[in-house]
């Protein structure tokens, strides 16, 4: 049994992580921390966990966390990096769901996150936790940087095309749409129901923090620098990301359906839909899955990939559990199989 | 392993039943019928079942259904009663999720459902499938009438008060609110998103079909005729029922919190919240649970009970599986434990 | 032309007031204040006002407000009372949309609002601004206490019954449901889309601040103390209040439809629907109207009144403009006629 | 005063048209037709029109329509073309809100709409009713083809770039998102609240009926054949279209903000937002306006245009009234000025 700790568990990602870990047959949640809510019962904030997580939040102390086999960080950016080095020294494995270890270049990180990185030497060690890309490395990792939600949906959608060098790398477009839970559980006017319901808008054009992450990973896959335009939008719903990806095919006769189906044939959590399909975010709501459809228009020259995930599961907590399973030698799907609720 | 059939599985109740049965460790789904969608793959209509239910709809034939140990009817009213007698004769157990067997009096049934009942003799045999009320009888039953969604939320909220004779029976009020999935998956203007989103209204005043069911069961519990006013409302959300119940306490010094907590102490699927609580429908979304809070105002004279369920689970498919477990001697909670998604 | 000032215009009530005043043919908005947003353009916060309100927020200064003929307070409770006495002294009329002047008894006010009242002598002078009840007094008033949103919907629903003494005054029940905008534009977790969408719950049982206001006004109308149970609920939508009112008829033979139709025949903003109707909140969204239907069940003994308003219009800003029109001798409907958007 | 008729007024476009015409100071609605709802009161279907439109639906008869100065068709595709020739012969002007007269080529029309066109000779006469493009011609027109909702948002977004030949015409991308009202008021499963709420998906890839319309008009503007990829998506809200447009700038030093601001400086219903802005659909909800922002990324090479409209107003009924004003020599903005509701 894995003894697990969750740091910063009062956000939506933390809540999902607790829900998944509580239902995982090989996990015992030992520590749940929150500075702001220390002493308060977890199910007081998350009523769905009543009867499932019988615990209270505690202050984050290294001594308590050192008793764990693994610690998950579901904290704001800039927190994990202050605690991770010591945890690793004490032989605790770490999955960081924040952005602290996703970029390889400390200067780029500092530029985008507005502070200098406190342990840049770990940036190179950290494994980018997308199992479909880095499964072997994740198995051996001490420190996993769990991917961002937008990057997960977008990278899985471009991956087969990048690996096989099928597309023009200079004008990739990722038009992405996210439910409001992607903005977190902070008290802020911009994500009130009255500000987001019955409304649709783009935001973060031209700069969104997920851009360098997408850029870096796609370039790594393509083994060349790629040019990506990324435009995020806010959808009046709670969960789900839909990425609509556009790129130009090098060869209009390519059978891209076969490329995708082949690449993901053995992946437990990527489902390539049949030709002509349109994946819906609700079909993956609450489950650790990415559904993908690929279309070609304009005589095959224009490739359109539709990729959907639940931003809190495959885009965060579910992928973190998937990574934990790999790191501890368990079946990758343990505790993350479920069927989406519909309607 | 129980061989199960589902008749009329193209509605939301049917879809939920398939989802639950597919995840049930002791069930093998043998037959899934639909006249309208015969031959079509189930996951074509319900994309969440892709990879979980690998089957197509078939025409409803008695021979195929006779191979089952149990048949669930998720059909419009008036269908089950035409097939149930023969199935029972062939030793197939039945859980009917429609209203065909919920009322004891065939004349009352005919008045409310606009047709005469084709097997009135079975009305008395049928057991009203509310386990918290009729657990022992359900265990022995061949035919279970699964309760309506509104009645489940309302009856569980009044039950302890009625059993203990704590309230004035003549002026019970049930102000109930339901998500739109309660109206089913039929093509109709009234439940389009554009007609129901950003809107709230009452409907069915003064006559709603669930009234006689609530009236009958509450009167049975109280062992006297009760007078109930029931007003349903449509909430702009998919799932969930919230019943706000009002009645007058016979004795303002009664500790009703204790009455509720005691009555439901051993119930796996009824959760009595602590004093002062307000249950939320989202806390039971997707799970087979009723959460209840009891309040007293006006010096204790006015009792307010707040009761929430997921109309498709505890109000339909989940309760049906709970009944099946009882009918076949399994642990009542098998296959119906889950943690609600939040947010 | 009326020179108008709006104090505290960064909330939803303030925004609606600006929208209505900007479209009013006899109003010139001179001052728009906000401490928090001073210097910021109004249309930067409320993009719908771009091209309609060409102004910036300013700090609230008495000198500037004294230049106005009327000042509206759309402030949190406890602010208006600190400025109103001086404004009145300077011959500025006031409509207060907060709760500072709604209660007549300073002790009751202090108990519910947690502070002592700074000008209790004005509580008696202030006219409760429900034109259907106090039209003549509003015409003469210097200071109008604009009713709360719940009280408006509830009082208009009970009014004809209370005036004509048709009901048992001791067990009135108001089961009310409100869209989330009723909770304001503050940054708070509880009203995030992710906390309120796809959810329904009661709140504030047994004590909500609108209770004493409802109690006071209903008792005034009935000329006797009434007993009211008020339970508010939160609906996953932006705008709208639906009040479902229950009471016992003194005489089951009363034709209550006629009572309502007669009482409101000349009211420009109360629409009594035909028998059997169910008013929808969307039918009054964006307009200054209350739609009401009356039903009788249980042989006429139980009266059910359904009453809907837009909480931000007839429940706040629209009623404030209606009051202003009366105070300045204009046609009561000036600037508040519009047709609701549907869908 | 213009005598107006509306054919097929039971859809959402028809309802909006009635709302706008009822509030128009120079219009008298003489005829409102619907085969399906003949004899039924209009406000029975559209409760918001109660008190504003005092009329019933009638069967569509040419004699009655011939009494009108203008007839609007808000019918399904294929209806208007059967009645328009006779109306024109009787000197009745026509604005067709369906797709019958939007394409110039009868063969292309037949291919996309699955029937042959009954009056192809009128295709060339019909003026495409986008005032920002064809104002002068609309003033003289007998027959106006009111643009589709997606085309309106997309063409207004590309227009300045196409006119000035600033972009690569071969790889235009229009990633468009629409509220559910765009799918109409038909009884169909796909647009039920339970199928569309809490969900996001693309549809109609690779072929949507608005593609040839966009293609034709954009090519006309550019005076060369353009290559456009159009992907529509369904947003869980009632109203609004957001088009995110991508194209490659011919010259990265172009100041496109100035190009847009200059082009639309005198347009009453196109609002070019300041640099860096993100228009929101709610800011145009209920109003006849298109708000546009232009961004450049990747060193200016990639142009991103964000364009929002209310699909039922600027994308349908509002634009139809704007066209009517032009056709009858009235101020173009008469009866279509309003301020969007927010929240």
Provide an overview of this structure.
The structure is a homotetramer of 343-residue chains. Chain A has 12 helices and 13 strands. Chain A is of the alpha/beta class and 343 residues long. In chain A, the strands form 2 sheets. Chain A has a 7-stranded mixed beta sheet with strand order 8-9-7-10-13-12-11. The radius of gyration of chain A is 19 Å and the shape is globular. The mean pLDDT of chain A is 96. Chains in contact: A-B, A-C, A-D, B-C, B-D, C-D.
Task: Summarize this entry quickly.
Chain A is of the alpha/beta class. Chain A has twelve helices and 13 strands.
- Taking pLDDT < 50 over at least 5 consecutive residues as the criterion, the unreliable ranges of chain A are none
Number of strands of chain A: 13
Q: Which two chains share the most extensive interface?
A: A-D, 45 and 45 residues
Mean pLDDT of chain A: 96
Calculate the terminal CA-CA distance of chain A, rounded to whole Å.
Answer: 35 Å
Helix vs. strand class of chain A:
alpha/beta
Number of helices of chain A: 12
CA gyration radius of chain A, whole angstroms: 19 Å
